[in-house]
Specification:
By secondary structure, the chain is an alpha/beta fold. It is built from 13 helices and 15 strands.
Length: about 400
């Protein structure tokens, strides 16, 4: 393995020397979790995410952490929630079928405001589908998989370097906003081998969890400050707390009083919108004068970036908008990028999921075309080039 030293900083990191290291995507995810302060992992092996668990099974004990292979994905997410309530930064990793099994407890963690990270490495579906083939079929599951209105954050890295950075950022967002955060990437990126700038040990700044402090006594565990995020109760500190998945008041106790339910739910949902500057991230390429805007994420965005270069070389004004944060979707940024476009193309490795959000956000300002592939193979640049040329023909 070849390494080199350079200056770099990851999200939440202080600028320092870093080592350029060749890593697979799933390996980078595991190392990033350790750097972000993760000290508990519970999971169940499932292709194509299993390498995350494999690496953490021997990396976590080195830093005093705990790895547990559970009996299934339902138990895994429950254990992660419990570990987080106990004071640890915690995560799990899975793929589409396991992600489906986790949805009820993801909703529980959202309602009880338990910070945790779920990594979903997407593969072909539905059901068992194609365990070793790539897809982007969990986009809407990440948004709507759990029932009820709930805060949702999902990040979509498009390179091994971004897997490292976005995993760290996922922990940062989860802890700051007390919410589950999903890192969503496909099988291709999971198994890519690329150079990653890995910060020196201790260089990543781990934001401490906001704990309740002060003398014990009258205490309301779900009473939030101006940021909309209540402090967490550290076990054994003497503060009374009550944790329930039922709709609850600031006291933590269940309630069905309409005014109280409305107030608490609006705070729960509003803390994401109030912190969009922390959550949202996107990238653009040649969008200032684009006649056609390509909106893509994950491995498909890499094909789209190459397609933009080819089209530009042929005189076609194409641009790329790449949402790194899928949920909440960066609506204003997309509107700006598409403001001059005559057409929008959305290539996806599914039958059409994020395109529904693109259509909603743009509201007919430009016609939105689809390019979908559902055969277990990634969309390649020449397919996007051909689709753009067909639009102009």
């Amino acid at each position: 393995m070849t390494t080199a030293t350079l200056s770099a900083s990851a999200p939440g990191a202080q600028t320092s020397s870093a080592t350029l290291t060749a890593l697979h995507g799933n390996h980078a995810c595991a190392l990033a979790a350790i750097a972000a302060g993760c000290r508990f992992f519970a999971g169940y092996p499932i292709t194509p995410s299993s390498e995350i668990a494999e690496h953490l099974s021997y990396e976590l004990p080195k830093v005093g952490g705990t790895f547990v292979q559970m009996e299934d994905e339902i138990a895994s997410i429950a254990a992660v929630a419990g570990a987080s309530l106990g004071g640890l930064r915690a995560m799990t990793a899975t793929s589409g079928p396991g992600f489906s099994l986790m949805q009820e407890n993801i909703g529980y963690a959202a309602m009880t405001e338990i910070p945790l990270v779920i990594v979903d490495v997407m593969r072909g579906g539905p059901s068992t589908g194609m365990p070793t083939r790539p897809a982007q079929g969990d986009v809407m599951q990440a948004r709507f998989g759990s029932h009820g209105d709930r805060p949702v954050v999902a990040l979509a890295p498009a390179s091994v370097q971004e897997i490292y950075e976005e995993t760290i950022r996922a922990f940062d967002i989860a802890e700051r906003l007390r919410t589950p955060v999903t890192v969503l990437y496909d099988q291709v990126i999971a198994h890519l081998l690329e150079s990653v700038a890995v910060p020196a040990p201790g260089a990543v700044r781990v934001i401490p969890r906001k704990w309740a402090n002060g003398a014990s006594g009258p205490f309301r565990p779900y009473e939030a400050g101006d940021d909309g995020v209540p402090p967490m109760v550290r076990p054994g500190d003497g503060h009374r707390s009550h944790t329930t998945g039922l709709t609850h008041a600031e006291t933590g106790f269940p309630t069905q009083t309409p005014a109280v339910v409305d107030r608490m739910m609006r705070r729960l949902l509003g803390k994401i919108d109030a912190n969009r500057a922390l959550v949202e991230r996107f990238a653009t390429r040649a969008t200032d004068d684009a006649d056609v805007l390509i909106v893509a994420y994950g491995i498909t965005a890499r094909a789209a970036r190459r397609a933009v270069d080819v089209l530009r070389a042929e005189g076609v004004k194409a641009g790329l908008f790449r949402p790194i944060t899928l949920w909440p979707f960066p609506e204003d940024a997309l509107k700006r990028a598409a403001s001059g476009a005559k057409s929008v193309l959305v290539p996806e490795m599914n039958a059409g999921q994020l395109v529904l959000e693109i259509e909603r956000v743009l509201g007919g300002a430009a016609p939105v075309r689809r390019l979908n592939r559902i055969d277990g193979e990634p969309i390649v640049p020449h397919q996007i080039v051909a689709a753009v040329k067909e639009i102009f023909s």
